[in-house]
Amino acid sequence: MKNTHSTVAQVTERIRERSRPTRDAYLRRVADIGGRERGSDRLGCANVAHAVAGAPVNDKLRIVAERAPNIGIVTAYNDMLSAHAPYQGYPDLIKQEARRLGATAQVAGGVPAMCDGVTQGTPGMELSLFSRDVIAMGTAVALTHDMFDAALLLGVCDKIVPGLLIGALHFGHLPTVFVPAGPMPSGLSNNAKSKVREQAAQGLVGRQGLMDAEMAAYHTVGTCTFYGTANSNQMLLEAMGLHVPGTAFIQPGDTMREALTREAVRTVLGRASDVAYRCPPIGQLVDERAIVNAMAALLATGGSTNHLIHWVAVARAAGIVIDWDDFSALSDVIPLLTRVYPNGSADVNEFQAAGGPGFVIGELLDAGLMHADVLTVRAGGIREFAGVPTLAGDAADAGALRWTPAGPSKNEAVVRPVSAPFSATGGLRLLQGNLGRSVIKISSVPEDRHVIEAPARVFDSQAALQKAFAAGELDRDVVCVVRWQGPQANGMPELHKLTPPLSVLQGKGFRVALVTDGRMSGASGKIPAAIHVSPEAAAGGPLAKVRDGDLIRLDGVAGTLTVLLPADAWAARETATMPDEQRAADGHGLGRELFAGMRRNALTAEEGACSWL
């Protein structure tokens, strides 16, 4: 293993210095709270009685008289979402394992879990980003009963994991382990599904044909199989040492899943694999090095662009300040090691079979591109996360789990070593220019489309773009500018519904790109898309000055996003305001008005779009 790469070390030190006042204050709070007596000893008798009134008699005895550890479970279970449906039986299994170890566990609370796949292209998507902060608050409500010695967090998908993590970091004195549920088995391939969507956008496939394809792709419990935000979450948690190692992509129906869930209980209690190890409080574990490790893993796998928002917010919850310049500096030295859809044709099940997170983490550690000297929830440190779990006996057997090295790659079309990467640089890139700062998922864009220069067509909504496409108005080289989609405007919805029509245009040979202050899906595909443009149009950002016909250049090689106008002409250009009809439509109906305060208080995308700071 090499010493830490100089750029990784420099970025980490820059973050540490920038964050010192807020991080020091955070750690003091964690230490102060962690130094108190345990809950049932500290709280009043009536408080404790309320807390255990619904517990079985033996659990009451353990919590109050025997002073046994009590685990708080925060769950995102609901049976509508495939990724979270497997969690239904987890609390009973966790309680059973805790009791076997002389401890107790209580479901402290539940948090909402919404699916962007369900709300994509609908008004509900305008609640999506801020659902992260609602989940963080829900986690705080659950844990604020303050009767817990540790926490297990049950959640997988897009906003759920960042929300749970932000909430948990506000209870940084608690040892905390995330418990995933795994991906669904492979169905219709992601490439085939996307092809049918493009055909439907052209009217070549009807609703029934499209429905059949979607049902074949999303067909049972588990996360979606593409490498979007949900599965990127799991990669980042592995890289931060917050899972039982190798847990991310074991399918819900695998017999090992029960063993790994039981191991999570043993881990948070400090008895992992029968080895006594005190699981550190999460506030100490998630430090600058852990955040940089997550950033490195994201870049090496070409993960979701959403995490250039979410992990900024996660870091801030721990008193750590990161920005897109940090991602950009790391991207210059972190190689792209995976080809998983939308960066390739493989899905996450194929990624797992080829070596998965363990292989990537092992390669990055060996190359000095991740910090090796970090705390994790396990005694073996981050190196243990370069392994793959196997089951040697019965799932309920505490000694059944074994870990073996994930490398070498089992399929170099899917994962490659640092010595022979798919690209010498990371999958995400910062774009800067007179249109602001934005990001692009460059790893999924064909190389001949890394630079697009074309006239702008400006839209005030995604519906307007779809209407223009249907009318044949976009059959030309064009940069589609979709504005008023930022956090303050309408909650920053994903605009993934625009992928099929823009893909059709690109397939016809036109040079097209998307520029927006909104988000794209974590499955952002082959269309060059400058997203998260900041400052947003609603805050007077430069997208509010763009007019139809302006020549725009998106240069993913040079890292620039510019409107090609003389500086004085651009400076003198009047800034538009959000149209009244758009303002009236955004933020009303289907609960959107309840989030008005969050929209007003939201920070910029680069600041994590936080509504709680």
TrEMBL record:
Pfam families to which the protein is assigned, alphabetical: ILV_EDD_C (PF24877), ILVD_EDD_N (PF00920)
Cofactor names: [4Fe-4S] cluster
Pathway: Carbohydrate metabolism; Entner-Doudoroff pathway
Cofactor, free-text remark: Binds 1 [4Fe-4S] cluster.
Function: Catalyzes the dehydration of 6-phospho-D-gluconate to 2-dehydro-3-deoxy-6-phospho-D-gluconate.
Family: Belongs to the IlvD/Edd family.
Name recorded for this polypeptide: Phosphogluconate dehydratase
Gene that encodes the chain: edd
